Structures are given as structure tokens and as C-alpha cells.
Amino acid sequence: MSRGPGRLELAIKAVLDGEPDNAFTTDDLCRRVYPGINKVEKKHRVSVTRAARNIANRHDSFGCLRTENLGGTCVWFRTDSLLSYAMAKIKAASFTYYQSNDPRIPDHQKKSEDVLRAMLAPGGRYHGYIVPGGAWWSHVESWREEREAKLACDDNRLHAIYAEREAKNRRIRRRLGLAT
């Protein structure tokens, strides 16, 4: 039987809580919870991924996206923070090559965190997704409503939220010609 969260889980949760408007790759978390290491190795990534998954399973306010690049690393974020989710979406996107180890990608194409934040700023490439009514804004609002309904034990509201999500997904699939 488990004695509760271990040292790694507590350290990861502290990192995620300490910067609620940011998202972190598994390598980012490794560098923060293992401060003395020179190189992030597989053993570090495996233990951090396992601990972060435990946190995400225990808390509705944490989530994970997989990157579209070589290696498909995890990007961890807070589901109750719009900026955290937006940073996770951008870090996971294939065009940013955030912290990519792919030798085929030239260094000038790899984007830093400052460049990614500029993409979310007013006038930035992805600012429209985070304004009220934007796609990423609606995802975060849906998660917030779901969490509130779960806390209030309101099954009717929870079913309505799930039905609304499914209706949106059906409309998107229909527009893309994927309707079944």
C-alpha cells in the first residue's frame, strides 16, 4: 500500500504549482527535480514521467500532451490555467521544435520559451486562440466547468458538459468529412 506521494511527486507538484501559467516538458521537470545532473538520462525521464502521471491521475487540474516531434515527449500543464494549456499546445506542436534533440533540425528553427510566449501575446500568431471564445479558451472553460460539477456532485450538469463536448466533436468531424 502506498504511503502517499513520494519525493519526486512532491517536487513536480511544487514546480507545476510554482509556475501555474507555464507548461513543462519531461526534460524540463527532470532538470528541476534533479538539480545536480549534467545530462538528463532515460532513468530520469522514466521516473519523472511515472511520478507526473500519478499526479495527473490524482488531480483533475493537471494534464499531459504528447509532442508531435521525434521522441514524442510529454508536456505537463495545469488544466485550470489558460496560459499553461496554451504553452503546452505550442510546446507540443511540431513546428516549434521546442528543446528538440533531432539532429535534422537546424538550431535556428528551434524556438525558445520567450519566442513561444511572444506567439501568445496580443498580435502574436496564436493570441486568437486564448481570447474569450477562442478554441483553447473554450477547452479550459470546459475543464473548469467539469471540475466544478464533479466537486458539486452535480451529475446532470456533468452529463450536459459531456454531451456538449461530444456535439462539438461531431460537428468538427462532420466538417472534416469524418462523420460516421
Q: Can you give a write-up of this model?
A:
This protein has 180 residues and is mainly α. It folds into two domains: 7-129, Winged helix-like DNA-binding domain superfamily/Winged helix DNA-binding domain (Arc Repressor Mutant, subunit A), CATH 1.10.10.10; 132-180, no CATH class. It contains eight helices and three strands, in the order H-E-H-H-E-E-H-H-H-H-H. It has helices spanning 7-18, 26-33, 42-58, 82-92, 113-120, 127-130, 135-151, 155-175; strands at 24-25, 62-66, 74-78. Strands 1-3-2 form a three-stranded antiparallel β-sheet, sandwiched between helices. A hairpin with a 7-residue loop joins strand 2 and strand 3. Helix 1 (7-18) crosses helix 3 and helix 4 crosses helix 5. It is globular, with a radius of gyration of 18 Å. The mean pLDDT is 88.
Helix content range of the residues, please?
A: 40-55%
What is the residue-averaged pLDDT? Answer: 88
- Unreliable runs, pLDDT <50, ≥5 residues? none
CATH architecture of the largest domain: Orthogonal Bundle
Q: Spatial order of the strands in the main sheet?
A: 1-3-2
Please compute the radius of gyration using only Cα atoms. 18 Å
Distance between the termini: 45 Å
Overall 3D geometry?
globular
Major sheet attributes = 3 strands, antiparallel
CATH superfamily of the largest domain: Winged helix-like DNA-binding domain superfamily/Winged helix DNA-binding domain
What is the helix tally? 8
Instruction: Count every beta strand, where a strand is a DSSP E run of 2 or more residues.
Output: 3
Quickly name the level 1 CATH class of the largest domain: Mainly Alpha
Which class of secondary structure composition applies to the elements?
mainly alpha
Number of domains: 2
